[in-house]
Amino acid sequence: MAASDPNLQPGAQASQVKSAIRTLDIIEYVVAHNRPLVAQEIAVALGIPVSSLSYLLGTLVDRGYLVRDGRRYSAGPGLQRLQASPGGFSLAERAAPLVRTLRVQLNETTSFFVRSEWDVEAIITETSEQALRYSINTGARRPMHALAAGKALLARLPEDELDRYFAETEREKFTPSTVTAEKALRKDLADVRRIGFAVTDEEYSLGIRGVGRVVTIGGEAVGSLSVGIPKARFDSVMQRRAMDLLERTAGLLEAA
C-alpha cells in the first residue's frame, strides 16, 4: 500500500484519491467507446458533477491524454506515449511530472532549464500557488550569470569553454546584487562545484532567492532544476529543504 502524504489532512487525501479514480474512469470510458464523446455524456455515465468534470477534462487535454474538437473529446496522443519505449520521451516530457511534484512539495515556483547559447531557457515551469511568488514563463530565456539555474550549468563547463563564455559575454547588472565581474563570478562557480548547488540572492529579481542543481545524464550536463523563493519565506530550513528535494528530483531524472 502506498504511503499517504503526512502533510495532508484525511479529507484532502480522500479527495485526491477520488480525483485520481475519476481521472482514470474518464480515460477508460473514452477509450472504450472509441468515438468522440460530449462532456455531458461522460458526466451522466460516470456520475461526475459537470464542474469537476470540466477541470479534469481540461487537465487531460492539456497533458495530451484527450483531444478536444468543439464539444467532443476523444483519446489523445499522450496515451500512446505511455506505451512507448523510454527513448520515445523527450527530456521535457520526462522532467515535467518531476517538476510538478517538486512544486507541490515546496509550493514554490519550480523550473527546469536548458542551456541556449549563453542563456538558459525554461522548458518546464510550475508556478507557486502562494500570493507572493516568483514567476517565469515557459520558453523564457535569461542570462546564465544571474540565475541559479544558469550558474549551476556554468559551473559544469570545461575550463576552455568557461574562458570563452567570459570573453564573449557582456554580463548585465539586473539588481545591485547581480554578480558580473569575472573574478567574483568564478569564485561563485567554484562554490557551486564545492557544495553541488547554486544559490542566488536577489541577483535577477529583487526579493527573490534561487536554488539550482545541475542534471547530468551520461556524464553530460543536460539542464538544471531550480526553485525561486521570496526572501520573506527563505531561511536556512527552507534552503536545506529545497536542496534536499532538488537533489532527490535531479537523481530521479538522472536515473530515468
Describe this structure in words.
With 256 residues, this protein is of the alpha+beta class. It has two domains: 72 residues, Arc Repressor Mutant, subunit A, CATH 1.10.10.10; 169 residues, Beta-Lactamase, CATH 3.30.450. The chain contains nine helices and nine strands.
What is the CATH topology classification name of the largest domain? Beta-Lactamase
Which structural class should the secondary elements be placed in?
A: alpha+beta
Share of β-strand residues? 15-25%
> Average pLDDT, to the nearest integer?
89
The strand count comes to: 9
CA radius of gyration: 21 Å
Order of helices and strands: HEHHEEHHEEEHHHEEEH
Largest beta sheet: strand ordering: 6-5-4-9-8-7
CATH class of the largest domain: Alpha Beta
| CATH superfamily placement of the largest domain | GAF domain
Low-confidence parts lasting 5 or more residues at pLDDT below 50?
1-8
Q: Give the second-level CATH assignment, the architecture of the largest domain.
A: 2-Layer Sandwich
State the helix count: 9
Short synopsis of the structure:
With 256 residues, this protein is α+β, with helices and mostly antiparallel strands.
Provide keyphrases for this structure.
alpha+beta, Arc Repressor Mutant, subunit A, Beta-Lactamase, 2 domains, 6-stranded antiparallel beta sheet, 3-stranded antiparallel beta sheet, 9 strands, 46% helix
Q: How are the SSEs placed, and which strands pair?
A:
Blueprint: H1 10-33, E1 37-38, H2 39-46, H3 50-62, E2 66-69, E3 72-75, H4 77-81, H5 91-106, E4 109-116, E5 119-126, E6 141-143, H6 148-154, H7 159-168, H8 182-195, E7 198-201, E8 208-217, E9 220-230, H9 236-255
Antiparallel strand pairs: 1-3, 2-3, 4-5, 4-9, 5-6, 7-8, 8-9
